[in-house]
Write a structure and sequence with these properties.
The structure is a single chain. It contains 13 helices and twelve strands. By secondary structure, it is an alpha+beta fold. Among the domains are: about 1-50, Uridine Diphospho-n-acetylenolpyruvylglucosamine Reductase, domain 2 (2-Layer Sandwich), CATH 3.30.43.10; about 220-325, Enolase-like, domain 1 (2-Layer Sandwich), CATH 3.30.390.50. It has a five-stranded antiparallel beta sheet. It has a four-stranded antiparallel beta sheet with strand order 9-10-11-12, with helices on both faces. Helix 12 runs antiparallel to helix 13. It starts with a strand and ends with a helix. The structure holds flavin-adenine dinucleotide and iron/sulfur cluster (SF4).
């Protein structure tokens, strides 16, 4: 780990001004950034500590929208009674992430900005060939052990998975990321994360010095009847092999699907909304055979790299199971 300057910011303006300087990173809970610095993957020379800034850890649930400050802790959001009631999927996706200790430290802003867990990316001492860490150097995972790598949204340059859970539920429900830098702006979360293409080192829409100040999730009936299903190699403290964030709204007959939301985690290079399956189900009767047949298309365009082929079978089953749960037919 290299030495660095530590800059405690008193307010958002000073944090943003400091972060505009080169080789600077924001520090929130530190649960990802400090790890990556110890591994020599991240090498900032300046850290701007956000944790003293007041007013950025609020959680607000109004009639129309849910607003969560970037410094709100994962555990506080997961356990918030209004969030559990209005948006179970948000609470569940946070509870199923990491461990209790990590959730107590980690912030929502830091969670959105976590980086891939690709083992080759995280081991610069052993692997120099990683296009994400070292653009143009190749991709060790393509010929390596790639069981935990993506089958959707990949490119010849990178097959790394977006590892988080919470952003998957945000993508399903059209959340916006609220950002401050030179100006304030709101970025639809589906546009916030970028596909790797030929530039896997560019992962998101934020410019240097821009800070996430919060997120906004519009409320809807499908959000109230929502669920996050995470399938993983062990029951806790593990990233997703495949996950689905879903929500459903039924017509008054209790059988016809008026609205449905579906996003996949653990299988793609970014949180993966599957609008084609949503469109195929809207207006249709809710039944197991239809859900299973529609869910099969959730991995359309997928590409296996070898060891990760099982995800192509698994993901549609996770989608169907999650939809059956919210539909009350599981
Ligand atoms: C062992 C382990 C298991 C885990 N398992 C899971 C899991 O199952 N599911 C899951 O979703 N996550 C998992 N995580 C990831 C965990 O959720 C993240 O480490 C955590 O959410 C990061 O938040 P933080 O506040 O500690 O961020 P930090 O480590 O402080 O920062 C992370 C990154 O975000 C940037 N950043 C922080 N705040 C802002 C801001 N406001 N604006 C712009 N940039 C910002 C930092 O500069 C840094 O680049 C796991 C982590 C570990 C270590
Ligand atoms: S999958 Fe991406 S992050 Fe992993 S080694 Fe290849 S280029 Fe690097």
């Amino acid at each position: 780990m290299r030495s660095f300057d530590y800059i405690p910011a008193e307010n958002a303006d000073s944090a943003i001004a400091e972060a505009a300087k080169p080789e600077t990173r924001f520090l929130a809970g530190g649960t990802t950034l400090v790890d990556l610095m110890k591994l020599n993957v991240e090498r900032p020379s300046r850290l701007v500590d956000l944790t003293r800034i007041s007013g950025l850890d609020t959680i607000e649930v109004t009639k129309d929208v849910i607003r969560i400050g970037a410094l709100a802790k994962m555990s506080k959001v997961a356990d918030h009674s209004d969030i559990k009631d209005a948006a179970p999927v948000l609470s569940e996706s946070l509870w199923r992430a990491a461990s209790a200790q990590l959730r107590n430290m980690a912030s929502i802003g830091g969670n959105l900005m976590q980086r891939t867990r690709c083992t080759y990316f995280r081991d610069p001492g052993a692997y120099s060939n990683c296009n994400k860490r070292n653009p143009g150097s190749g991709c060790a995972a393509l010929e390596g052990v790639n069981r935990n790598h993506a089958v959707l949204g990949t490119s010849d340059a990178c097959i790394a998975i977006y590892p988080g859970d919470f952003a998957v539920s945000l993508v399903a429900f059209d959340a916006n990321v609220l950002v401050r830098g030179g100006t304030e702006r709101s970025i639809p979360i589906d546009e916030f994360y970028l596909l790797p293409g030929l530039t896997p080192h560019i992962e998101h829409e934020l410019s240097p010095g821009e800070m996430i100040v919060g997120i906004e999730i519009p409320r809807c009936a499908a959000l109230k009847r929502s669920h996050y299903l995470k399938v993983r190699d062990r029951a806790s403290y593990e990233f997703a092999a495949a996950s689905a964030a879903v929500g459903i709204e039924l017509e008054d007959d209790g059988k016809t699907i008026r609205d449905v939301r579906i996003a996949l985690g653990g299988v793609a290079t970014k949180p993966w909304r599957v609008r084609s399956v949503e469109d195929a189900l809207k207006g249709k009767q809710l039944d197991e055979a239809r859900l299973r047949s529609a869910a099969a298309a959730s991995v359309q365009g997928s590409r296996s790299s070898g060891h990760n082929a099982f995800k192509i079978d698994l993901a549609p089953k996770v989608v169907a199971r999650a939809l059956m749960t919210v539909g009350g037919i599981a």
